[in-house]
Write a structure and sequence with these properties.
The complex is a heterodimer of chains A (110) and B (116). With 110 residues, chain A is mainly β. Chain A is 0% helix and 47% strand. Classes of the chains: A mainly beta (110), B mainly beta (116).
């Protein structure tokens, strides 16, 4: 599975959009990009995933560049409850190995 | 109903003891995992089972032995506990081989193990 790199930490003002970048320059054609988050010490929570098209759900939007070497998770209106560690993961279709990196610690500030 | 439940949530024990953590999922998933999150907050995969068959077995001391009596349960037994085993252990499940799956993993709330 391809590796990912993310900034260690980011701040975002409450009510503003939070844009979390992820680099996955060695991604293969059959590898999906997944985003999870972990709030405090709870179990990680799935947010969204995509292959090459941009995706949107009730939690977030995922923008994947045309060359698929990077992506951005967008939380459109961040709230204090979005403060968490956000993990970008690359996984081959039907692959069992979800490898979590250090992630990005997002702090939403009032 | 909790989708992925782990017991116990907290476990404090002495070095050298043997302990077990249990995990159950009621989602009908075919794959279950154990992850370890240490004090540095890195989340590392330990084991993965698919339909009771061991699929992933990362470099983990053989004091750790997973057991899957059926595909809804994956327990973790740890022998001769050491200080370095102190961590939060997360169980997760997913339906990874179904053709319509999203590949989403569902995690339990974690079991915090403290070895004194």
């Amino acid at each position: 599975d391809a590796k990912t790199t993310q900034p260690t930490s980011m701040d975002c003002a409450e009510g503003r959009a939070a844009n979390l970048p992820c680099n996955h320059s060695t991604i293969s054609g059959n590898e999906y990009v997944y985003w999870y988050r972990q709030i405090h010490s709870q179990g990680p929570q799935y947010i969204i995933h995509g292959l090459k098209n941009n995706e949107t759900n009730e939690m977030a939007s995922l923008i994947i560049t045309e060359d698929r070497k990077s992506s951005t998770l967008i939380l459109p209106h961040a709230t204090l409850r979005d403060t968490a560690v956000y993990y970008c993961i690359v996984r081959v279709e039907y692959g069992q190995n979800f490898v979590f990196g250090p992630g990005t610690r997002l702090s939403v500030l009032p | 109903d909790t989708a992925v439940s782990q017991t116990p949530k907290y476990l404090v024990t002495q070095m050298g003891n043997d302990k077990s953590i249990k995990c159950e999922q009621n989602l009908g998933h075919d794959t279950m995992y154990w992850y370890k999150q240490d004090s540095k907050k890195f989340l590392k995969i330990m084991f993965s089972y698919n339909n009771k068959e061991l699929i992933i077995n990362e470099t983990v001391p053989n004091r750790f032995s997973p057991k899957s009596p059926d595909k809804a349960h994956l327990n973790l037994h740890i022998n001769s506990l050491e200080l370095g085993d102190s961590a939060v252990y997360f169980c997760a499940s997913g339906n990874l081989w179904a053709t319509s799956n999203t590949g989403e993993l569902f995690f339990g709330e974690g079991s915090r193990l403290t070895v004194l």
